[in-house]
C-alpha cells in the first residue's frame, strides 16, 4: 500500500471517513501504530511530559523533536502501510518567520511530512511562507499547552461567545492562508462541530467531541499509562485482555465507527 499523504486525509474528509492520529515518539511504537491502521503519527511535544518527565511541554527543544522524529520515521518505514508523520514545533521555536522556517527545516529533514504549530491568525505569514517552501502545516488551536502560563492552567477554551466566534474566524482565515489541517484541543463539542463544517480542510480533535474529522490521543494515555490525573477526553483502550497491538486497532476501529469519543469525553459550552 502507498503511504498516507495529505491528499488521502483530505479525501477522507470529503468522503466523511474518520481517521485516527496517535502520538509516537520511538520506532517500535511508530511501526505498531502504523500497522494497526493509524493514519497520522504525531511526534508531539507531549514527549516532554510522557518521555522526559517534565511538568509541561515548555522545556522541549527542536533538537529533542528531531531525535524523536528520526526514530519514528525509521519505525514507520518498516510498517506495511507507512503513516503520515506530523511533528510539533516546540515552545518559542517559531516566534519569528526566520525561526519558524529554520525549525521546520530541521524536523522535515529528520523525516516529518508536516509540522504543527500552536496559535491562531498570527501564524498566517508563517503558514504562507512554509507553504511556498513545500511544507504542509497543521495549526493547533483551543487549549494550546505551550501557553499554559498565559492561560493560568489547562482550561477549556472557546466557551464565551466572543471567543468562540473569534476561533471560528481564525480557522476560516487559516484555511484561506493555505493551512492543511487544523487541530482543536479542549473546546466545546458544538463549537468544534461548527468549525469542522465551516472549513474544507480536515479538523483533528482532542476533547473536542465526535464531530471533528479525526481524533488524536497521547499514546501513553490511551494505553492507561498516565500517572495520576487523567483528562476527561482520555479513554483507556488497553482493556478486555487486549495486547498493545489490539489496543491500537481498537482505537482505530472506534474512531472509524464513531464509537470514540462518547459524549462523556467532550466538553459543553
Ligand atoms: N499525557 C499527556 N496527555 C495529554 O493529553 C497532554 C500532555 N500529556 N501534555 C501536553 C498537553 C497537556 N494537556 C492537558 C492537560 C490537562 C488538561 C485538563 O486539565 N483538562 C481538564 C479540563 C479543565 C476544564 O474543564 O477547563 C479535564 O478535566 O480534562 C487538558 C489537557 C494535553 N496534553
Ligand atoms: C496532545 C496533542 C494534540 C499534542 O499536541 C501533543 O501530543 O503534543
Ligand atoms: Mg503538542
UniProtKB/TrEMBL annotation:
Catalytic activity, EC: 2.1.2.11
Record's keyword annotation contains Transport: no
Domain of life (superkingdom): Bacteria
Primary location group: cytoplasm
Swiss-Prot/TrEMBL cofactor(s): Mg(2+)
Record pathway: Cofactor biosynthesis; (R)-pantothenate biosynthesis; (R)-pantoate from 3-methyl-2-oxobutanoate: step 1/2
Record: active site: 185 (proton acceptor)
Gene Ontology molecular function: 3-methyl-2-oxobutanoate hydroxymethyltransferase activity
InterPro entries for this protein: Pantoate_hydroxy_MeTrfase, Pyrv/PenolPyrv_kinase-like_dom, Pyrv_kinase-like_dom_sf
Keywords, alphabetical: Cytoplasm, Magnesium, Metal-binding, Pantothenate biosynthesis, Transferase
Protein residues bound to Mg(2+): 45, 88, 118
Signal peptide location: none
UniProt cross-references to SUPFAM superfamilies, sorted A to Z: Phosphoenolpyruvate/pyruvate domain
Co-factor: note: Binds 1 Mg(2+) ion per subunit.
Residues that hold 3-methyl-2-oxobutanoate according to the record: 45-46, 88, 116
Reaction(s) the record says it catalyses: (6R)-5,10-methylene-5,6,7,8-tetrahydrofolate + 3-methyl-2-oxobutanoate + H2O = 2-dehydropantoate + (6S)-5,6,7,8-tetrahydrofolate
Subcellular locations according to the entry: Cytoplasm
Broad class of enzyme this protein falls into: transferase
Subunit structure: Homodecamer; pentamer of dimers.
Family: Belongs to the PanB family.
Function: Catalyzes the reversible reaction in which hydroxymethyl group from 5,10-methylenetetrahydrofolate is transferred onto alpha-ketoisovalerate to form ketopantoate.
Protein name per Swiss-Prot or TrEMBL: 3-methyl-2-oxobutanoate hydroxymethyltransferase
